Amino acid sequence: MSERVLEVPLADAAATETLGAALAEWLAARPGAVIYLIGHLGAGKTTLARGLLHALGVVGAVRSPTYTLLEPYEIGGRTVVHMDLYRLQDPEELLALGAHDYSPRTTLWLVEWPERGGGELPPANLQLELQTEGASRRAILRLPAAATTEVTPLVNAVQRQGLAVQTQAPP
Q: For the whole prediction, is pTM greater than 0.90?
């Protein structure tokens, strides 16, 4: 069995934040998860993280942890770590940052530039790639094959936020 793939067209930055809110809804019952945010500079990774964090209850500005690399949030008894690994020189730097102090079983990990983390990152529960197409974007969401029961709840959460979603049949 192969991974499950969903595609969500995103008209603008507001739609990207809305997708983040849909992910927050989908993640509400999970104590922890790992989400890889993939895309080139300016694709909207931090915009999506902002929508997710605001939907979880973060008040105020949400900035990319470009210089701190790791920004923890405590939200209603839940821990979320937002990581931006773009400036990471070596995957082992994650140890020095204290990333492994946050168990993915009990912490939500939002990881921008996960390819820079090498083998030091836990496997993703969701890989979300943002692709730009002129002024608009699209999100490609990939769930591991073992997560087939997660597809319908994720699709429902996206649709409840008013976004269209297309499922791609597994090969």
A: yes
